[in-house]
Amino acid sequence: MKTKIYNSLIKFSLVLGLFLPMTGLHAQSWIYDFGQGVGEWATASGTNTTLLPQPVSGGGNDMLSIGAVAQGSGFYLQNPGLPLLGSGSELKATASTGIAVNKFSIHGYTPSKLLHTKFTVLFGDPTGEAGPKAGDWYYFQGAGALYSNTSNASTNLNQSFISLRWTFAPGNILRMAYHNGSSWIDLTSLAGSPLQQKKIYQFEIFGNNDALASDYYHNGNLYSLAADRWDLWMDGVRIFQGLISGGMANNVNIDSWLFAGEHSTTNFATIFIDDMAYSNLLPSNPLPIELVDFTARSTSEGVVLEWKTASEDQNDYFGLEYSTDATDFSTVYQMAGAGYSNSPITYQYLHSGIPEGNLYYRLKQTDFNGDFSYSPVISVRHTGSEEEWGISSPYAGGDQVAFSFGGPEGEYLIEIISLDGRRIYTSSLIITSGERVTLPASLPSQALFLLSVSNGKHQEAIKFFAL
After folding, report:
1. pTM of whole model > 0.70?
2. Level-2 CATH architecture, domain 1-21+286-386
3. How many CB atoms lie within 10 A of CB 183?
């Protein structure tokens, strides 16, 4: 099964993504990771560009803005945060209690008329519980001064190609709407049921602001987007297609996105944001490299990297890239590919002389004609010795889920849990340290899951994305 899903960063775990063809300098994809830090900004109006990590080259600039401190609200970088959002930091943003607007934006990334954006969110009160009865949170994507200043986002719709609104309502629900350039259209009635507070959702948007129709691939299937239209996916399901764009003119570039919160009278409507990824192209048919596994393991000599392919077509070479912050990668080794192969091949490399701590790796696969693509990102905690208690490098594809285990030999309870709390898989297994565990679990594709391993005294959990 070929990897074919757009990158979505999951901290301290495998990021499953497609091998996206990159044939030009303007076709780029970015992962925006909140890292491991903590902090808050809620005491001064104006803008802030230092609390959050800056995006990588070409990925734009980040900005926070608070409209009015007196209305009580702010931005909080949390670690640990909500358990269902996994390890690492996440952004908690509380809406203003009045008409002033609080915004988190990325502006000025490499522009394009196409877009593909993915993010994970939970709506609730500041503790992640249900309860707020009023307040609006918006998601906008487009271009213009709106994305880099403190102006009210909901009254500047002529700068947005994508305009989504979630409104907190009594009964612990949210009503969702989108703007079609003329008015707000209620999506809740069209969907048949409202969204729920205190529940994690993964939204994915495919947009075409070009003058011509364009295609994209999702889970191996081909979809078409007419000019000036966009599709909305939620939890791996396309819930709306061919939505009309907002007030932004057609056939112009898009280079920014933002979240904005307002009108949260007395109850501090809050959004928790994680796993943000965005691209200025639509996912195309993946390059013909069938990557079946990619792992990293800490040893006393360094980190052992291993990846396996089931087939290769026109594969010139792999570049192994490394990072200490999941943002800035550098090439540490180049290994020749097999060119053309229909048989399984295993590649291995020992990365030595490296610092201890959390390390991140990815593969850059280059074709004979110069086209290249990036693999999933994996992470490992390097301790300078053999791995201790922990799980890493989960990989889901086909009818199996695999992960690496480090810990004492014994019997462990293994559970795979959906983000709405359903147990998809449960089993007790005898596992040895250093083992690559394979589970016979067929999971719904294009969805996030939580992998939990416990022995009654200790528990480890990690998020992963199913192909």
Report:
1. no
2. Sandwich (2.60)
3. 7
